[in-house]
């Protein structure tokens, strides 16, 4: 993949859900490029298809039609095993409700994706400690999620997302479950990651304030991309 | 390593639920082991039967006797080297609940039972005393009988009060031999019958035949039965094992019921275990979806569920296994000598282990398949 090539290339992408014999279109004819190092916010009202688009880009859902290349690879042709392998190397996930393993400590949660690599235990330790210090949780390594605040849990989730140095980080409403101050901290952290490490971040949010931290805003409405932001 | 860590911590996540399931498994494995041991105990006599002994009895039923005159004719049959008499006495010691078998036997009876070890001096003392009795060690231990003691019995078949003097106590040659019975002189019983009206004298319950060649057992049995064909009292001759089995078969329905109960116990715990695993897996749907999103395959998810299920079964089953011999000892004592041999066999232990493992695997199949197939997008929406 050359440097000028977009990290995400989407052409005429379509996705519909089938419920009770009815077909409900969720995304229609989406064409979009996201460049390397971009911090993109996907905005839109509930049901606009923004989370579905994020899931497709992250390889946890499959489109019905269209082209979807991530890092130059057409991920729509990969089978489940290949997709799982690709995700472990290429995508970091940040979820609204953190989705940490409650029985593992902060350290172990961050280490989890690295257990799928060939790194030695010592190498893993070095990386995890560095990453946890980066998100300011060096002193909370042995704490379980239930012993951490929401903001701290989301910082652990961010550490887990970046630990494998993925080409893409997807964040689905990362501040949706946080108070104002914690949300601001998380957004600042994402901004810093993007600015200092040139990490490509795609964030779904319906919070206009959160969206402002992104460098690029993309609006979705009823499954279609809007060329202009909707009138307030 | 992470898998093992997750399995152990997930197992301990709901301590009460896991504890109750482990306890249920402990009880199930223990109950299964005890019930199987009861069945084994039932067959204990069959298992220790000798292949060099044949039993000749009335072909009509055990309740019918054979004439004593048959003895010399049986002894004349080729292949038979010893013939001993035995008759069921059916006396009551103090209370009907104090049941133990008593047999009136000929003096050569013990020659056919080398597994009953009796000091020669005691044997001679018994031979000299027509009212003398020999009691097995298990019986002597149960009622505290000693050499020289008088055992009063109230006859149920041979009505009247009987007094026997213990002249010897015989031991089993090993722990598997049942020595919970009493032997006394057939001649003593017969003398008593001769003095009474009726035709009950000079009769024998069964003849025990000693043979040299176990492989000729069928041939000799046929020869004996042929000898008395079309007589007033036809015989049915069979190996001692077949004879014992015919006794056990009288309680086949009870044994079948015990076996069924033991399997039902396992099925019940399987259902409980499957429910526990299904609940656990359902609660963790979003965690499994997260793991899959991070790149862990369906096999890893299945491993976590199978591992947790097996961990519970290993702990519960192991505890049940460990407790079984102690419970069996307690059961034997509580049963008051009904089961002289009540030992947990190796086969039962292996069956307990296999049952526990089978429950662990079977209980996890459906939850593991469902969890490993969960679509990530749907799984992430599920809240634990």
Percent of sequence in beta strands of chain B = 15-25%
How many domains make up the 3D coordinates of chain A? 1
Our count of helices of chain A gives 7
Structural class of chain A: alpha/beta
Order of helices and strands of chain A: EEEHEEHEHHHEHEHEE
Question: How would you describe this structure to a colleague?
Answer:
The complex is a heterodimer of chains A (232) and B (384). Chain A has helices spanning 50-58, 80-90, 106-111, 121-134, 150-162, 180-197, 208-211; strands spanning 8-19, 22-34, 39-43, 65-70, 73-74, 91-94, 168-172, 200-204, 216-221, 224-226. Chain A is α/β, with parallel strands linked by helices and 232 residues long. A 6-stranded mixed beta sheet of chain A has the order 6-7-8-3-9-10. Chain A is globular. The model of chain A has no long low-confidence stretch (mean pLDDT 91). Chain B has 384 residues and is an alpha+beta fold. Chain B has 2 domains: 2-44 and 252-381, no CATH class; 60-233, no CATH class. Helix content of chain B is 54%, strand content 17%. Chain B has 14 helices and 13 strands. In chain B, helix 1 packs across helix 12 (298-334), helix 2 (15-42) runs antiparallel to helix 10 and helix 10 (252-283) packs parallel to helix 13 (346-373). The longest helix of chain B is centred in the last third of the chain and has 37 residues, at 298-334. The mean pLDDT of chain B is 91. Chain A binds chain B through residues 55, 58, 60-61, 80-81, 84-85, 87-89, 93, 95, 97, 99, 101-104, 108, 111-113, 115-116, 160, and chain B through 1-2, 5-6, 9-10, 13, 286-287, 290-298, 375-377, 380, 383.
């Amino acid at each position: 993949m050359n440097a000028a090539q977009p990290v995400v290339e989407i052409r005429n992408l379509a996705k519909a859900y089938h419920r009770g014999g009815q077909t409900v279109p969720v995304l229609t004819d989406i064409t979009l490029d996201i460049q390397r190092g971009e911090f993109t916010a996907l905005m839109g009202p509930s049901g606009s298809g923004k989370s579905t688009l994020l899931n497709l880009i992250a390889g946890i859902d499959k489109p019905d039609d269209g082209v979807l290349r991530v890092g130059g690879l057409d991920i729509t042709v990969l089978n489940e095993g290949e997709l799982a392998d690709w995700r472990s190397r290429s995508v970091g996930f940040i979820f609204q409700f953190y989705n940490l393993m409650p029985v593992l400590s902060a350290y172990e949660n961050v280490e989890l994706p690295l257990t799928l690599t060939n790194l030695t235990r010592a190498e893993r330790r070095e990386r995890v400690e560095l990453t946890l210090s980066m998100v300011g949780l060096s002193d909370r390594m042995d704490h379980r999620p239930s012993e951490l605040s929401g903001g701290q849990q989301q910082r652990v989730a961010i550490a887990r997302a970046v630990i494998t140095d993925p080409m893409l980080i997807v964040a689905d409403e990362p501040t949706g479950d946080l108070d104002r101050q914690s949300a601001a901290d998380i957004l600042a952290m994402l901004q810093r990651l993007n600015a200092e490490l040139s990490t490509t971040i795609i964030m779904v949010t319906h919070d206009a304030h959160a969206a402002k931290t992104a460098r690029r805003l993309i609006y979705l409405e009823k499954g279609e991309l809007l060329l202009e932001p909707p009138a307030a | 390593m992470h898998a093992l860590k997750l399995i152990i911590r997930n197992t301990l996540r709901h301590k009460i639920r896991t504890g109750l399931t482990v306890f249920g498994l402990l009880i199930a494995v223990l109950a299964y082991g005890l019930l199987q041991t009861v069945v084994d105990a039932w067959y204990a006599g069959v298992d220790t039967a000798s292949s060099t002994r044949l039993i000749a009895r009335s072909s009509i039923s055990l309740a019918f006797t054979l004439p004593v005159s048959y003895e010399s004719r049986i002894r004349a049959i080729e292949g038979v080297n010893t013939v001993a008499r035995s008759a069921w006495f059916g006396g009551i010691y103090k209370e009907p609940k104090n049941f133990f078998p008593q047999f009136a036997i000929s003096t050569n009876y013990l020659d056919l039972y080398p597994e009953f070890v009796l000091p020669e001096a005691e044997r001679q003392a018994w031979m000299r005393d027509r009212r003398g009795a020999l009691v097995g060690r298990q019986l002597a231990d149960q009622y505290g009988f000693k050499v020289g003691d008088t055992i009063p019995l109230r006859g149920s078949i041979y009505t009247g009060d009987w007094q026997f003097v213990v002249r010897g106590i015989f031991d089993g040659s090993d722990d598997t031999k049942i020595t919970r019975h009493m032997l006394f002189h057939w001649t003593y019983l017969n003398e008593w019958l001769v003095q009474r009206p009726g035709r009950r004298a000079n009769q024998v319950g069964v003849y025990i035949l000693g043979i040299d060649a176990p492989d000729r057992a069928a041939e000799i049995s046929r020869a004996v039965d042929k000898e008395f064909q079309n007589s007033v009292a036809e015989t049915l001759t069979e190996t001692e094992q077949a004879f014992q089995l015919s006794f056990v078969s009288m309680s086949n329905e009870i044994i079948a019921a015990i076996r069924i109960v033991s399997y039902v116990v396992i099925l019940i715990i399987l259902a409980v275990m499957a429910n526990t695993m299904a609940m656990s897996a359902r609660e963790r749907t979003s965690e499994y979806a997260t793991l899959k999103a991070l790149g862990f395959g369906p096999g890893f998810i299945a491993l976590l569920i199978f591992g947790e299920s097996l961990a519970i079964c290993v702990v519960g089953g192991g505890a049940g296994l460990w407790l079984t011999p102690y419970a069996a000892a307690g059961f034997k004592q509580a049963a008051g000598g009904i089961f002289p041999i009540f030992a947990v066999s190796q086969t039962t232990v292996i069956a307990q282990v296999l049952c526990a493992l089978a429950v662990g695997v079977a209980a996890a199949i459906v939850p593991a398949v469902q969890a490993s197939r969960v679509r990530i997008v749907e799984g992430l929406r599920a809240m634990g």
